[in-house]
Write a structure and sequence with these properties.
Elements: H1 3-15, E1 19-21, E2 33-35, H2 37-56, E3 61-63, H3 73-77, H4 80-83, E4 85-90, E5 97-99, H5 100-113, H6 117-132, H7 136-145, E6 162-165, E7 169-171, E8 181-183, H8 189-194, H9 196-202, E9 209-218, E10 233-243, H10 248-264, E11 273-277, E12 287-295, E13 298-309, H11 311-320, E14 326-331, E15 337-341, E16 344-351, H12 352-363, E17 364-369, E18 376-381, E19 392-396, H13 403-414, E20 420-422, H14 428-438, E21 442-446, H15 448-453, E22 455-460, E23 466-470, H16 474-481, H17 485-488
Parallel strand pairs: 3-9, 19-20, 19-21
Antiparallel strand pairs: 1-2, 4-5, 4-6, 7-8, 9-10, 10-16, 11-12, 12-13, 13-16, 14-15, 17-18, 21-22, 22-23
Helix pairs in contact: 2-12, 5-6, 5-7, 6-7
This protein binds adenosine-5'-triphosphate.
Length: 490
């Protein structure tokens, strides 16, 4: 899929109420977006897919909802105050700021697209090495060697590469003093770590077990690009899985496989995903991999799986002075109890907004329909039915002769279980197209025959096939097609 299609996805998202720029009447706010009436439904459904598969489908994983504000010591302990920064570089002509590693990644993608695989591999390895050594001079020199120009000014007049901390801060309380400085969380994970013992004790959880959370995170990204791909306010869905030290390799492999299988179930095509191992590891990790998605602008990270060792719990123990240990009463092969230890952690962390964008890109289709004079293009979002904002549209053919009354009765029956869209206006063809564009999998049309024999027409979004069915059959069809088990079962 090309950049051209990406532009269409972005304007489609706005035109059909999925995503709007934030505070648009004031010309928007950089890299902040609002979800509209259809977007919020799709986003909620994607969140539910994650939550159900993590929490509901696992007896040993529970959820929490921690506050966005946390004690400032949290971020000292987690390493974010000292180490959560990105290498940035400015173009002196356009005055635009970029992430040095992103500029180089884009170049690698371009080499790959142009079939220059050797060059791509060579640059990838040089980039990994520079990141690993935190070598800012080398990053700049790679940008120069590969003749990377600013996309705005087109020049190669660059500043040096510098580090830039990504956390937003604010003050708590009426008197703004330095001691009152607090941060907007840059990740949801720390809310899980500080609650580790609360959940373990009150939930009587036994290792291995997980704690899951979804919620907002904030990062003052140097450069925000590609629509909702990189935002300053975004949503994460994270799960920390607490394990015995020494078992991290097998659990890391387990979650890598499990998370890839979760993505595959969405049905967007296995060629759309790949693993990308991290060479430069974050300050907390002993192994890390990204699941990348083939966005229209190239393969980019959608989810990270990290083996975080005992870094976080150990540091919270040190900074808070509170024990963050687990007593393992199970016996090892020598018949001795494992006893007290600080658990190790495997984390899975996915951005909900990136998942939303991947879903929109994968499901946006333009299709030629009709013949001869009637030839036309329709835009359809072929979302998995359970994820669609509306599951069914109820459309009386006319606004008279008792058709709306029958339609309303059907709506009353279905709306307790399914999000239904009701519409009387416009020609039926136009109404079908609008539903295609927001991904509604089924349209139910009520006509004069419905009054005589209690039947309706059901139209299927993907095939556009229309069938006459009894009103009493609607629920049966929906129950089969619009079901979480279609996505969740093994
Ligand atoms: P990137 O390298 O793209 O900045 P990251 O490695 O910093 O991402 P993590 O800290 O691992 O990301 O966060 C986990 C997930 O959160 C990412 O895989 C991504 O889906 C999402 N995410 C991170 N930053 C953003 C952002 N600025 N906007 C939207 N989603 C984000």
């Amino acid at each position: 899929m090309s950049e051209e299609i990406f532009k269409k996805v972005v304007s489609h998202a706005k035109e059909y109420g999925f995503v709007f720029p934030s505070s648009e009447i004031y010309d928007g706010l950089g890299a902040v977006y609002d979800y509209g009436q259809n977007g919020v439904e799709l986003k909620n459904n994607l969140r539910q897919y994650w939550w159900k598969s993590m929490v509901q489908m696992h007896e040993n994983i529970v959820g929490i909802d921690a506050a966005i504000f946390m004690h400032p010591k949290t971020w000292k302990a987690s390493g974010h105050i000292d180490g959560f920064s990105d290498p940035m570089i400015d173009n002196k002509d356009s005055k635009k700021r970029y992430r040095a590693d992103n500029l180089l990644e884009d170049k690698i993608n371009r080499y790959e697209k142009d079939g220059k695989t050797n060059k791509a591999a060579e640059l990838q390895s040089a980039l990994d090495q520079a990141l690993l050594n935190n070598d800012l001079v080398q990053l700049k020199s790679l940008i120069e060697q590969h003749e990377i120009a600013c996309p705005i000014s087109g020049t190669r007049n660059w500043t040096d590469v510098r580090q830039f901390n990504l956390m937003f801060s604010t003050e708590m309380g009426a008197m703004a003093e330095d001691a009152d400085k607090i941060y907007l969380r840059p990740e949801t994970a720390q809310g899980i770590f500080v609650n580790f013992l609360n959940v373990q004790k009150t939930g009587r959880m036994k290792i291995p077990f997980g704690i899951a959370q979804t919620g907002k995170a904030f990062r003052n990204e140097i450069i925000a690009r590609q629509f909702i791909m990189r935002m300053r306010e975004f949503e994460q869905m994270e799960m920390q899985f607490f394990i015995r030290p020494g078992t991290q390799k097998e659990w890391y492999e387990y979650w890598k496989k499990a998370r890839m299988a979760w993505h595959a179930k969405l049905g967007f095509g296995s060629n759309k995903y790949r693993f990308h191992d991290h060479v430069k590891l974050a300050h907390y990790a002993d192994a890390a991999v990204d699941i990348e998605f083939d966005f229209p602008f190239g393969f980019k990270e959608m989810e990270g799986i990290h083996s975080r060792t005992d870094f976080d719990l150990r540091n919270h123990q040190e900074h808070s002075g509170k024990k963050m240990q687990y007593f393992d009463a199970e016996l090892d092969e020598n018949g001795k109890a494992y006893g007290n230890y600080t658990p190790y952690v495997i984390e899975t962390s996915i951005g909900l907004d990136r998942l939303f964008l991947a879903t929109m890109c994968a499901c946006y289709k333009e299709e030629e329909v009709g013949e001869g004079d009637k030839k036309d293009t329709r835009v359809v979002l072929n979302l998995p039915p359970i994820l669609a904002p509306y599951k069914v549209a109820i459309l009386p053919l006319m606004k008279k002769d008792g058709l709306p009354e029958v339609a309303r009765e059907i709506m009353r029956d279905l709306k307790t279980d399914y999000n239904c869209f009701y519409e009387e206006k416009d020609a039926i063809g136009k109404r079908y197209r609008r539903q295609d564009a927001i991904g509604t999998p089924f349209c139910i049309t009520i006509d004069h025959e419905s009054l005589e024999n209690k039947t309706v027409t059901i139209r299927y979004r993907d095939t556009m096939v229309q069938e006459r069915i009894a009103i009493s059959q609607i629920r049966e069809i929906l129950a089969k097609e619009v079901s979480w088990s279609n996505l969740l079962k093994d």
